[in-house]
Design goal:
The chain has 339 residues and is an alpha/beta fold. The chain has a single domain, classed as TIM Barrel. The chain contains eleven helices and 13 strands. The strands form three sheets. An eight-stranded parallel beta barrel has the order 3-4-7-8-9-10-12-13, surrounded by four helices. Strand 3, helix 3 and strand 4 form a beta-alpha-beta unit. Helix 4 packs parallel to helix 5 and helix 6 packs parallel to helix 7. The structure holds flavin mononucleotide. The site of flavin mononucleotide has 28 residues, from strand 4, strand 6, strand 11 and helix 10.
Length: 339
Amino acid sequence: MYELMRPWLFALDAERSHVLGLSALAALGALPGPLQPAPGRSRTVMGIEFPNVVGVAAGLDKDAIAVEGLARLGFGHIEVGTVTPRPQPGNPKPRLFRLPEASALINRMGFNNDGARTIAARLKRLKGRRSRLAAPLGVNIGKNRDTPIERAVDDYLTCMDALHDCADYLTVNLSSPNTPGLRDLQYGEPLTALLGTLKARQAELQSRSGRHVPLCVKLAPDLADADVAAIADALLEFEIEGVIAGNTTVTRPQVENVRHTDEAGGLSGAPLAPLARQLVARLRDRLEGRVAIIGVGGILSAADAQAMLGAGADLVQIYTGLIYRGPSLVRAIAQVGRS
Ligand SMILES: Cc1cc2nc3c(=O)[nH]c(=O)nc-3n(C[C@H](O)[C@H](O)[C@H](O)COP(=O)(O)O)c2cc1C
């Protein structure tokens, strides 16, 4: 079915077809009936039971408008966002480009989203209907573009406060290439100061609500080995529950001479797979199972997912694979490793 629809969707501007696809998913989610995750191997990760290994990566449903539709496709978890404290429009269009010869995308969306208050209200309504949703829900949080980087921590705290009650886990996004200065928070004192403050707020929110909401940190795939080691040590020191490895790359592997390769932004899809797997493997070696790893980047087949799990991931997420391979990829990956 998706094979038939793809040429039609790909004839449209990339962002326009994304908006259309999300609306279709929102409609699919509104239909009555159960939202069963695809059959797969269930796993307890960060203390949460995931019905299968495959989740939706952040950025696909930034505003949490199609959560139930995504659940109906069979995903075992859904990560919405990136959510910033205040709504913002993102970068000027065009800002999303297809590189079909490479099964890749380049985006410089820039955290366009409805803001924490609106998205929290949407998720609370969803939670009211939550008995339908068996898949855990992650909320990915970030900073507004116009917040100075020295005050980034305030934006993360605002988002934690607003979204804690609606999330099964929260992801601290430190790795989008499209918000100036953001990735600098992955290093040294800014990183340890940020993690210390967020962990303290997590404990406060837990004592107030009685719920423990694990924190994940999402990293760039472009980190040097020494930086990966330093970050891993900080994750251990502050007892961060999970790491998402990783975001899009600012490098351009395997896409020389491909149309749109020179567009500014982050590259996702097939060419990212080796980098993402390498990041997962390095983290696994350093973390030795003490922090959960969610592997994401360039997973376009069940074999790619298997390789990511083999490199050390506990769960995987997909975005670009869904665009190029369609919804059947979800069920195919969910089957991976099923005994
Ligand atoms: C159009 C687009 C928008 C994205 N927006 C976000 C975002 O808001 N926050 C985030 O953490 N990652 C975002 N990502 C990154 C994805 O979550 C994922 O890490 C990356 O695309 C690699 O996975 P993939 O190769 O399966 O697409 C975005 C990716 C794309 C293609």
